[in-house]
Design a protein that fits this description.
Layout (H helix, E strand, L loop, with lengths): L1 E2 L12 E4 L6 E5 L6 H15 L4 E4 L16 H7 L4 E4 L9 H17 L7 H15 L10 H4 L21 E4 L5 E4 L2 E4 L8 E7 L2 E6 L2 E7 L8 E2 L1
Parallel strand pairs: 4-5
Antiparallel strand pairs: 1-2, 2-3, 6-9, 7-8, 8-12, 9-10, 10-11
């Protein structure tokens, strides 16, 4: 998932792009007009409802799925994705080649803009829909053995959950609610988790003198209990 740069689009940000890694099928190509959480969440909700929920997503360190001020970079959007049990992966800083396939899609989009001219504001989504159809169903891709992405694409069998079921942590784990300040309290001590997780339930267990903190299937933090004080720990 990535936002195209604004070059040639005459807007603060280019379209939101979601590409399938296997087939290169453009799952979504949306003129959001901004990078706000709600704008992206609305588009992703519609995409998940029509195409299913992916096992994992690869993203860069951009808004709204990354917060450079946070300890782990998580945002409300990433937590929302995690509640759909999507594994999240972030590319290396300043290495757009990590997302080479979506960058190649953006290059094709730029070439189409240069050939056809940019659409009027009110026609932008219709223009993107037409381009997406051509990219997925008409144009053969050399990297796919001259097949179209639509010939390889299959919807995910994982369904979107408007209200995800609560996560059941294994027997022997303690379930703790994250405070509005992004902390949890275990055995009289406070541990920093993430402000984006405030109000959520995390699972905690001690193993080999470490306190392991999980949110659903993701390891949030491993605290060394041999160290009396340190990052994330308050007496």
């Amino acid at each position: 998932m990535d936002f195209k740069g604004p070059k040639g689009w005459d807007a603060a940000v280019g379209p939101l792009s979601v590409l399938d890694d296997h087939s290169r099928y453009a799952v979504a190509l949306e003129a959001t007009g901004d990078t706000r959480e709600q704008s992206v969440r609305d588009r992703l909700t519609a995409t998940f409802q029509s195409c299913g929920v992916p096992e994992a997503m690869l993203m860069d360190h951009g808004c709204p799925w990354w917060n450079g001020q946070g300890a782990r970079g998580w945002t409300r959007l990433t937590v929302w994705l995690m509640k759909q049990d999507i594994g999240l992966h972030f590319g290396r800083y300043r290495h757009p080649q990590t997302q080479g396939k979506v960058e190649r899609l953006h290059r094709s989009l730029t070439a189409a803009l240069l050939r056809r001219g940019k659409p009027a504001v009110e026609q932008r989504q219709a223009w993107l829909d037409e381009f997406r159809y051509e990219y997925n169903w008409v144009r053969p891709h050399q990297a796919l053995g001259m097949k179209t992405p639509s010939q390889l694409w299959r919807n995910s069998v994982r369904h979107y959950q408007p209200s995800p079921t609560p996560w059941l942590y294994p027997s022997g784990w303690e379930t703790v609610e994250v405070t509005r300040y992004g902390q949890i309290r275990v055995a009289g001590r406070y541990y920093w988790v993430s402000g984006a997780l405030s109000g959520e339930q995390v699972g905690v267990i001690e193993a080999e003198r470490r306190l392991l903190i999980h949110f659903r299937r993701t390891l949030v933090q491993a605290v060394d209990l041999e160290v009396p004080t340190g990052p994330g720990v308050q007496a």
